[in-house]
Design a protein that fits this description.
By secondary structure, this protein is α+β, with helices and mostly antiparallel strands. The chain is built from 43 helices and 29 strands. The strands form 8 sheets. A 5-stranded mixed sheet has the order 2-1-5-3-4. It has a 5-stranded antiparallel sheet with strand order 8-9-10-11-12. A 5-stranded antiparallel sheet has the order 14-15-18-17-29, with helices on both faces. A hairpin with a 4-residue loop joins strand 21 and strand 22. Helix 34 runs antiparallel to helix 35. It starts with 13 loop residues before the first helix and ends in a 21-residue tail after the last helix. The N terminus and C terminus are likely disordered.
Length: 1255
């Protein structure tokens, strides 16, 4: 039978259709089940051998290893390090995810009310047998816990890598305050405390009682950075006197056959010494002495943990262990969480201690063991590529992959920094010792090291060593960009750039086969000649492998790079010819030399780098010679600028297209001659418009010898982007600084703001020249820009001096540079290179060369005098220096000022002055007057390494955070808060608690809850953000300061005004360290202080701060600015609360006049001030007619309304007080007091005051 073809659609038989539907439904059910499995939670109870039970709620994505970490960090079970978890008697694999474990039941996704229906499943901690590795790890952990000393959570941080006192938090000390034990920490603290705080006697001694406005930073400004009190509060008690490996190690062979692994020597607090054996089953006391070895057991004492054994031997150890457990239980996880890597811990620039701990042989043993392990054969590259190749299809898989990547980068960075320091110090032998030192290469711990010099003349045409130095940093940024694209099959190396003692070292993981025959890892993509395709003859110099070309497409698309021809052979590449692609012996495809991933800043290169540049900015007058040429030609645009220019171009093209559509014009009509054809007679509405199309891409090789001159379109695009940066973006940023849209508080904040806008730091001079030198509104911003140029120039001077001087004189060199830039002349020059005048001449020359700006010869008097501490901080941070915490004087102080400061520090006003007290004061004053000015070499506590890593952001955690913010912006509050909490959980899983990204997420979630009205939860989350920011960003970092400011507002909103003031005072003390009293954000802080003081009914003090806010805004913005009017309005209400209606009337009249002049009579603010003005006028008349007794009643009633009015000036008012007459408006209060039935003044109403600003 034949079939006839038909044009009708074929009908699907019902059975087949039902099967397809069933299959589709099955797939949907499988996806839903997989999603539910990912969101499922597990209620577990972990039972320890000592009887402790740890309740845990975990997700399916977490592993057994995560549960073991919980056991090790819990106070009751922290002595267990060698164990496994068992479910129903079956041992669980450490790397198994909970969702994959058979027999482990979940309670469903979301964690709803079903938690009570499913009983917690029990996991049992089973003590495992020790190996030598496990035994050594256990002894190291017990040393951290039993020897006491430093705060819990900082243990394990390598001080050599992280620096002295790294990762310290002082928040617990600041929050509790001096002698403040009255405030509880319970849930009901807000209500109870508020009543206590509002008592006149209790609130008399608030944190701002002795605040001085406009005071310049004195020598005691650095006391706020002291960690002594926090270290004493966080220190754990010692349980033993000595604990280290015994001198009887290594274990003799005959004892190894009996299970001995290693020997430990312990001395208890009672003074008894024990020789302890670590065996396969645990620890026991042996019969050895200091002079005779006997490995046999001495007595019946035996325990699986070393802490358990010592508790049985020493009663004081048992008592101390209970105290350690108590300390662990009372501390927040943010304070105790260990860092995943030492590089994540913030390094303070001033340190309270010297970093010298007590005598301990165990530290020497640990250091020797680490040095011996420096030549380990850990395959860093294989680990990295294996992690990148992990599955990432589901939420759980992405979280696991990101967490492993972050952990690997942290460990690699620590190892790279330690190796780079060893390279600079000469502790590593070069692979090519016969070559010049600049060409030396090193291999340590399977990490490849090279120095950032142009030893092989690769950058001879671009600036030599200066270009090579920049290229190393650009290469790390390129690695980060390629890693962020996350293309499967495209591999990059682990890369870290380390600056230490004036030498830049590049640390990279090793490409498989790179040390074998050259043909084993031949370059198959890009130029095979160092320095790009310069001089390449096409096919011989440039390769263009098709597979590499395909893999690089997502990278090029994310960076807006175009395919372009390079070399005489016309090979087409997607990235720069300098990028090299090769295939390793493992079969993977690697890209190297990623320093040119963005186009050239051609406008800057042609005007500043080619010959003598033009005069961009100067404060020295027209007589100065032309600026010297820029030191190198490797001047590239930032990726942020390329992206911003691309977006601006798209927006402009779309607007033109839309304008053409509205006008009925054909965008192609301009290409046709007028009058030709019949198209000109058509109705505009009938013209068929082509769809909107836009194409803009850039060539990273434009304006380089590798670029094809015939491709002028790509070159024009690069030039347009460069002009956009020079003429538009830089000028817009200068306007933002002048208008206080951008208000950077430190050099790092300024750098971040410029980089966010795509501005390179070489434009600092241009920005300074665009800021008016004498205008009050720009004085602070211009000083900040000048400080950044001076600090960066000082870093270059230090780099030169460190290479020229022996290591023993590096501290002296740093002190000389620090003193020179702060205006302290050396009394005696110890070296010809360390003269103050010579150093300052070098600084001025470097600023002129690198930032195209001429500093005046009296730059110290013009910009630095009075702000030396802020500049000293910038120099220390950039150079990696840590100074001893003390009072630094940069000019000889007057004896009266020193005496006043000493008496204030000793609390002389509150103690009885005796002869002994007078003698002590005199001795301190004499000591201060006798000390040398500035920084001395002995003040330099450490010169640490500064590292840049190629670690990309964890995109999934950031996506979750952005999704929560987007939901809140769309008004979906419940969904947004839920997404933000999920984002916070993802950040903790990916980065851990002690990470800067987690601190940022804590702050974002806290702010969202504060906007939602939950001040209590917002304060708790922001408190954790403060702690983590202190530990990861720094005690005085702008992020930490802003977190303190926000936390102060949150505490005030929940009814803790006194605590809010204390936190706010600490933030302003930090502010004095990093900046000056003329910062444009300081008036906002003063306004918030006034609001909080009003909540405490300290009306006179509140008026001082409202007045200070008004004066500061008037000085910065001029007397006619709208913000000045708002300050007048706030001051008027403060006067009204104090019962001074005449002053309130005067201030409100000034606010109304300013509002109407600037905004008109119809603006809501103008109408509001008019209503308040009428009310204050009537109240002033009534107040003048009141009897004395009525005035007293009025004063009492005004006290009752204080909290409500203060709340009106805050963004988020605290919970309303109990009902009373205090909630009435002023005119109603007057009716109640006087019994008057006079009519309400016309237009009078209860208006909401301007909201208190927050950061």
């Amino acid at each position: 039978m034949s079939t006839v073809a038909s044009n009708k659609p074929e009908e699907v038989p019902p059975a087949v259709e039902d099967g397809a539907v069933a299959e589709e439904q099955a797939e949907e059910q499988a996806e839903e089940q997989a999603e539910e499995q990912e969101q499922a939670t597990y209620r577990l109870s972990i039972i320890a051998p000592n009887g402790s039970v740890i309740p845990v709620v975990a997700t399916a994505a977490e592993t057994v290893l995560d549960l073991k970490q919980v056991v090790s960090e819990t106070a009751e079970t922290m002595e267990y390090t060698c164990f496994y978890l068992a479910l129903q008697g079956k041992r669980l694999n450490d790397f198994s995810e909970l969702g994959e474990i058979e027999g482990l039941e979940a309670r469903g996704g979301g964690g709803g009310d079903g938690s009570a229906e499913v009983a917690a499943q029990q996991l049992v901690v089973v003590e495992d047998q020790y190996t030598e590795r496990e035994a050594r790890a256990h002894v190291s952990r017990m040393r951290d816990l039993l020897l006491g000393g430093g705060g819990v959570g900082c243990a394990g941080v390598d001080a050599r890598v992280a620096g002295v006192d790294a990762g310290v938090s002082v928040f617990s000390t600041v929050r509790q305050g001096e002698g403040d034990d009255s405030e509880g920490e319970g849930e009901g603290e807000g209500e109870g405390e508020n009543g206590g705080e509002n008592d006149d006697e209790g609130s008399a001694q608030h944190a701002f009682r002795d605040f001085e406005f406009g005071a310049a930073a004195d020598a005691s400004v650095l006391e706020v950075l002291s960690t002594s009190a926090a270290a004493g509060r966080q220190a754990v008690p010692a349980c033993v006197r000595h604990l280290a490996l015994s001198g009887w190690n290594p274990v003799p062979r005959h004892r190894q056959l009996q299970g001995d692994i290693l020997y430990v020597l312990a001395t208890t607090l009672e003074g008894q010494t024990y020789h302890i054996t670590a065996g396969e089953d645990g620890f026991f006391v042996n019969a050895s002495t200091m002079t005779r070895f006997n490995g046999d057991a001495s007595g019946d004492g035996r325990a699986h943990s070393l802490a358990g054994l010592l508790r049985g031997l020493s009663g004081k150890c048992a008592q101390g262990w209970r105290r350690v457990q108590g300390e662990m239980q009372t501390r927040d996880a943010a304070e105790t969480q260990a860092f995943l890597a030492a590089g994540q811990a913030a390094r303070p620039w001033v340190v309270s201690g010297s970093g010298v701990a007590g005598y301990d042989v165990g530290r020497t043993q640990a250091q020797a063991q680490a040095a011996a392990g420096g030549e380990s054969l850990r395959d860093w590259n294989e680990e990295l590529q294996s992690i990148r190749e992990l599955a990432r299809g589901t939420l759980a898989e992405r979280v696991v992959r990101d967490r492993q990547l972050q952990r690997w980068h942290g460990e690699f960075s620590d190892a790279a920094v330690a190796g780079a320091m060893a390279v600079v110090e000469g502790s590593v032998i070069a692979l090519n010792p016969t070559d010049p030192p600049e060409q030396h290469m090193f291999l340590r711990d399977n990490i490849f090291y090279s120095k950032g010099f142009d030893g092989r003349a690769t950058f001879a045409g671009l600036g030599g060593d200066a270009a090579a130095h920049v290229a190393t940093g650009k290469d790390v940024a390129g690695v980060r960009a390629v890693s962020q694209a996350d293309v499967a099959g495209l591999c990059t190396l682990g890369s870290v750039v380390v600056d230490y003692r004036g030498v830049r070292v590049v640390a990279q993981s090793v490409v498989p086969g790179i040390f074998r025959r050259p043909e084993a890892t031949a370059i198959v993509y890009g130029s095979s000649i160092d320095g790009g395709a310069d001089g390449a003859d096409g096919a011989d110099g440039v390769a263009a492998d098709g597979e590499f070309h395909r893999l690089l497409e997502p990278v090029a698309r994310s960076l807006h790079l175009a395919d372009h021809a390079v070399g005489s052979g016309g090979r087409v590449l997607r990235v720069s010819a300098d990028v090299k692609g090769l295939v390793g012996t493992d079969g993977r495809r690697y890209v190297l030399d990623l320093f040119r991933m963005t186009p050239v800043d051609v406008e800057f290169a042609e005007s500043e780098a080619d010959g003598a540049g033009s005069e961009t900015g100067s404060e020295t007058g027209p007589a100065e010679p032309p600026l010297p040429p820029y030191p190198h030609r490797l001047v590239l645009l930032r990726p942020e600028l390329v992206a911003a220019f691309w977006e601006a171009s798209v927006r402009k093209a779309a607007e033109e297209y839309a304008e053409g559509a509205r006008g009925g014009k054909d965008p192609t009509a301009s290409e046709q001659k007028s009058g030709e054809g019949a198209e000109g007679d058509k109705d505009p509405e009938t013209i068929e418009r082509p769809p909107f199309q836009f194409s803009l891409a850039f060539s990273p090789d434009a304006f380089t010898p590798a670029h094809d001159p015939a491709d002028s379109a790509l070159a024009d695009a690069v030039r347009s982007a460069s002009q956009h940066l020079r003429d538009v973006v830089v000028a817009a940023f200068a306007r933002d600084l002048a208008a206080h849209v951008a208000t950077p508080l430190s050099g790092s904040a300024l750098t971040a703001a410029m980089h966010q806008r795509g501005i390179n730091m070489r434009y600092l001079g241009r920005i300074a020249s665009l800021l008016a030198p004498d205008a009050p509104a720009t004085r602070n911003a211009r000083r900040r820009v000048v400080f950044e140029m001076v600090a960066r120039a000082a870093k270059h001077v230090l780099r030169r001096l460190f290479r020229a001087l022996p290591p023993r004189r590096h501290a002296e060199a740093f002190a000389a540079v620090a003193n020179a830039v702060t205006g302290v002349a050396a009394e005696k020059e110890s070296h010809p290179l360390l003269g103050s005048s010579l150093i300052m001449a070098d600084v001025r020359e470097i600023v002129a060369q690198r930032f195209r700006f001429r500093l005046p010869s009296d730059v110290v008097a013009a910009h630095i005098r009075g702000h030396e501490h802020a500049l000293l901080r910038e120099v220390c941070v950039k150079a990696g220096a840590q100074l001893r915490l003390r009072a630094y004087y940069f000019a000889r102080p007057a004896e009266a000022d020193v005496r006043a400061a000493v008496e204030r520090g000793m609390g002389a006003a509150a103690i009885r002055i005796t002869k002994a007290t007078k003698r002590a004061i005199k001795e301190r004053v004499d000591g201060v007057l006798a000390q040398a000015l500035g920084v001395a070499a002995r003040d330099v506590a450490n010169l640490a390494a500064v590292a840049k890593t190629g670690c990309a952001r964890a995109s999934f955690a950031d996506e979750a955070l952005d999704a929560g913010r987007a939901a809140l912006a769309q008004g979906q509050r419940a969904l947004g808060l839920e997404l933000l909490l999920e984002a916070l959980a993802l950040h903790e899983q990916t980065f851990g608690v002690a990470h800067a990204q987690t601190a940022r997420c804590f702050a974002a979630v806290a702010h969202a809850h504060f906007d939602a009205g939950d001040a209590v939860l917002a304060a708790e989350l922001m408190a954790r953000a403060v702690v983590v920011a202190e530990r990861t960003a720094g005690l005085d970092d702008p992020v930490t300061i802003h977190n303190y400011l926000n936390l102060a507002l949150y505490e005030h909103a929940r009814g803790r005004a006194a605590r809010g003031l204390r936190l706010l005072r600490h933030a302003l003390r930090l502010w004095a360290v990093v900046d000056a009293p003329d910062h444009p954000d300081l008036p906002t802080a003063f306004n918030n202080v006034g609001v909080m003081l009003q909540a405490l009914r300290r009306y006179a003090d509140a008026q001082r701060f409202f007045r200070a806010s008004l004066d500061a805004r008037a000085a910065l913005l001029g007397p006619d600015h709208v913000l000045v009017a708002s300050a007048h309005h706030s001051l008027a209400k403060a006067h009204a609360l104090a019962g001074d209606f005449a002053a309130a009337l005067h201030a409100e009249r000034a606010a109304h006049l300013l509002f109407t002049a600037a905004l008109g009579d119809d603006d809501p603010r103008s109408r509001e001030t008019a209503a308040w003005l009428a009310e204050f006028t009537a109240n002033a008349v009534r107040s003048a007619r009141l009897s004395k007794s009525a005035r007293e009643r009025l004063r009492d009633a005004v006290d009752a309304v204080g909290a409500v009015a203060a709340a009106e000036q805050s963004d988020h008012p605290p919970p309303p007080p109990p009902p009373s007459k205090g909630h009435l408006p002023i005119d109603e209060l007057l009716k109640f007091i006087t019994g008057s039935s006079a009519p309400k003044p016309r237009g009078a109403r209860r208006a909401k005051g301007p909201k208190g600003s927050k950061r």
